[in-house]
Amino acid sequence: RKEVEQDPGPFNVPEGATVAFNCTYSNSASQSFFWYRQDCRKEPKLLMSVYSSGNEDGRFTAQLNRASQYISLLIRDSKLSDSATYLCVVFPYNFNKFYFGSGTKLNVKP
Amino acid sequence: DAGVTQSPTHLIKTRGQQVTLRCSPKSGHDTVSWYQQALGQGPQFIFQYYEEEERQRGNFPDRFSGHQFPNYSSELNVNALLLGDSALYLCASSFDRAGYSEAFFGQGTRLTVV
User: Most C-beta atoms within 10 A of its C-beta, which of A25, A101, B20, B86?
Assistant: First the structure.
């Protein structure tokens, strides 16, 4: 079983839509969680960290469910510029390295 | 403040050759990790360097080796290149501390093996 699993998509949504991605992880010792955004042929860039209490940054909301071992990312009022691949990343402290999901591709259409 | 820098940005090699990729971490970071990202896949962990030693290694053959220098910069070496080594190679730097640790990525080196 993969350490981190994501639905690869693509998710095709119209501008203004709300879209949600989920990600599951297998290591219960995972301590830190992140969402990274990766544009085509570019490096991943940190979008937001995910905290146990959930956190929001503008149109983006991240949630963590430790009991079920999944994290989610909600994007409200989608913009064309949100089109990218979103990578779920977990950091199990007992392994001290980052595990990436394969990414979920989002296409926002006019 | 310079972020993570990698060189070269693009590289074309032939099968059997050897390649060296370079990475300078973000200022203040002491840990460098290397990832291989094939087209359409998420980054796969190759290895991590801390205090000039390989601390962790992913599921990659011994053809992949590395080094970290006293200034925390790092090199990734790949010997006897195969066509399947063609990928984007990403360097990520972070600061070693318990718990929370963001990673910042360089722009990557796109390696094509022909």
Answer: A101
